[in-house]
Amino acid sequence: MSEARASVVSDDGMRPSPGGELQMDVALGLEGLRKTFGEKVAVERVDLAVPAGSFFGLVGPNGAGKTTTLSMATGLLRPDAGRVTVRGTDLWADPVTAKSLLGVLPDGVRLFDRLTGLQLVVHAGMLHRLPRTTARERAEALLRALDLEADANTFVADYSAGMTKKIALACALVHAPRLLVLDEPFEAVDPVSAASIRAILADYVGTGGTVVVSSHVMDLVERMCDHVAVLAAGRVLAAGTVDEVRGGASLEDRFVELVGGRRSGEGLEWLHSS
Ligand SMILES: Nc1ncnc2c1ncn2[C@@H]1O[C@H](COP(=O)(O)OP(=O)(O)OP(=O)(O)O)[C@@H](O)[C@H]1O
Where is this region: Disordered (predicted)? Predict the structure, then answer.
């Protein structure tokens, strides 16, 4: 945490209001977000306040609405209702200002894969108005940190799934945003690279950045994040610090309890080999 920030914001993202009482410094605010696709209600109503300086995990079962929520939160998908603020700026009213503060790793969005990895990250930096030389220096440093240096001049179209994830992450980081929103950043990534990414993100949060990350790996969220929200059927079932949400149990047990029990293998007896 920077000294300037430490003087006004405590570890749990609170700062004194003019009246003296503590109020949360919100990096990302979601208010009444809703999205339907035809008859399908993907996000029913999501209200979340992500404290500045937090490492915030978003978890939920398949189809819970995580990607839809994060897409609305980052300007990729227009909500049917609700409001998104990035550091107090209304994302949908002033997208240019809000998006300049955001780094986004979307789920499954196509990249310009006829560029090499290095070209793609330089391009992402220049889109955020970095001078070419700065964008190139940063891109090279990111490729080194993410163990992609040897493939800097390979076309992204020829990258593996994990390499593609890492180059997309480099694109999200290159302009040094205040807030990072990462949809499943560890999916398909090898353990050594995952450890490097975790270290980069921990350092980023430690120096005042905010990270929102969706994941299915409860153990990872429990170890890595300080805040978490559990989403199911397009609604927030629980949100707070990781300790508040898990309430003495493991996050995985609490998740199963909140979301509903495991299905048995009933009806699959034909799979038994004997
Ligand atoms: N473009 C779309 N058209 C129709 N239905 C959609 C669309 N996008 C998402 N949905 C539906 O909305 C619901 C929420 O999907 P979403 O991808 O947000 O879930 P998720 O929590 O990210 O799931 P997962 O963990 O499996 O990635 C699902 O029922 C999905 O089928």
Answer: 1-21
Best residue among 34, 39, 40 to mutate for probing ligand 1's pocket (most ligand atoms within 8 Å of CB) is 40
pTM of the model: 0.88
Is residue 150 included in any domain, yes or no?
Answer: yes
Tell me how far the alpha carbon of residue 37 lies from the centroid of ligand 1, in angstroms.
Answer: 9
Atom number in ligand 1 closest to CA 64: 21
Domain end marker among 176, 193, 224: 176
Q: Could you read off the pLDDT of 101-160 as tens digits, one per residue? A: 999 999 877 889 999 999 999 999 999 999 999 999 999 999 999 999 999 999 999 999
Instruction: Among 33, 34, 37, name the best residue to mutate to test ligand 1's pocket (greatest count of ligand atoms within 8 A of Cβ).
Output: 37
The ipTM (two decimal places) reads 0.98
Where a domain ends, among 125, 145, 176? 176
Sort 56 into a burial class: Cβ within 10 Å, 0-12 / 13-18 / 19+: buried
Determine which residue's CA is closest to atom 24 belonging to ligand 1: 62
pLDDT recorded at residue 21: 60
Instruction: Tell me: do 95 and 39 sit in the same domain.
Output: yes
Output the CA 55–ligand 1 centroid distance in Å: 24
Within-domain flag for 274:
no
List residues near ligand 1 (CB under 6 A): 37, 40, 42, 60, 62-68
Structural domain for 203, as ranges: 22-101+178-259
- Total structural domains in the chain? 2
Structure tokens at 158: 């020829």
Sign of CA dihedral 228, 69, 181, 4: negative
Residue-by-residue DSSP string for 59-70: E--TTSSHHHHH
Quick check: is 6 in a domain? no
